[in-house]
Amino acid sequence: MKDRALKTMESLSSSKSSLAKFLRIQRSIAALPLLAVYSVVGSYFTGLNFFHLKFFLGALALYLLSGAVNGYNNLFDIEEDKLATSSGIVKANYLLKEFTWSQLKWNFALTSITLACVLLLIGNLEFTALCAFTYALGIVYTRPIRLKNRPLIGTLSNTYGFSILPVLSCFFLLNGELTAAIAFSLSIFLPTFASCLIAEIADQEIDRKIGTRTTARWLGKRAKTVIKAVLIFSVAFYFVAIYIHWAVILVTPFVAAILYETRKLYMDFTDKKADYALIKIGANISRGFIIYVIAAIILHETAATLLTNIFNA
């Protein structure tokens, strides 16, 4: 019997609805971990107020930033994406073959223009500069420098995008506390690095065929040892982060979900299991993200007062 996470992934990948096609060409699934971190950190800085205008516009900007960067990647990695199948699972980006070059080009252009408009509407110089830097990093990640073909640098670039970027976005956009921003960054950086490395391990066969030299390929058999080290240091950094600021407890379920699946992969290490672990991590983060948002909205006043009493005691 198939796992629910696998069924959901296959359903999203095979649906012919207009919404599903839009989500695929935008690679919306890739934005979920980024938005999960942004929402948790941002909700702390806003007192669990999800209806804070800057908070909402910031989330929209980060979604568009993810869509634009991935849209640029779509233009140059079509052949790679057509190969992106492993473990018999059809990934969302594999179905990019259903779109024409013109559609991919317009998706990138319109998403980038919309992003610029949202940043102008927000009017925060620091946040705009952060997004501009990340946009440029995302471009050179694919072409012309192609950072994804440089071991460690490519993985660290992805790790930054999924962990440090959303934390810094909240810090600049919502006038967050520096100590809390540092603590959040410490707690999620290594677990995110583990997820990015697992993604590379899952795609090793594809990367080998097209000649992409990722961190996973560079490490080879040493990848398992690195994963073990990341697991150990992730736990250590988490407790350091908790010591720095207790607000880190808010990201604990997400960190735990990543480390749990990473440990399972370490205990039974294969490329195919890495693919499954990555899907499970994404599914658990998405599920936790939805539950967190619903709970925070329902319990807004009570939870905000409780957090204020705890963290400002």
**Structural class per helix/strand content?**
mainly alpha
Give, in spatial order, the strands making up the sheet with the most strands.
Answer: 1-2
Ranges with pLDDT <50 over ≥5 residues? Answer: 85-95
Percent in helix: over 70%
Strand proportion: under 5%
- Got a strand count? 2
Number of domains: 1
Number of helices: 15
Radius of gyration: 19 Å
CATH topology: Farnesyl Diphosphate Synthase
Would you identify the CATH architecture?
Orthogonal Bundle
Question: CATH first level: which class?
Answer: Mainly Alpha
Intertermini distance: 50 Å
Based on Cα principal axes, name the global outline: globular
Order of H and E elements: HHHHHEEHHHHHHHHHH
Instruction: Note the main sheet.
Output: 2 strands, antiparallel
- Mean pLDDT across every amino acid position: 83
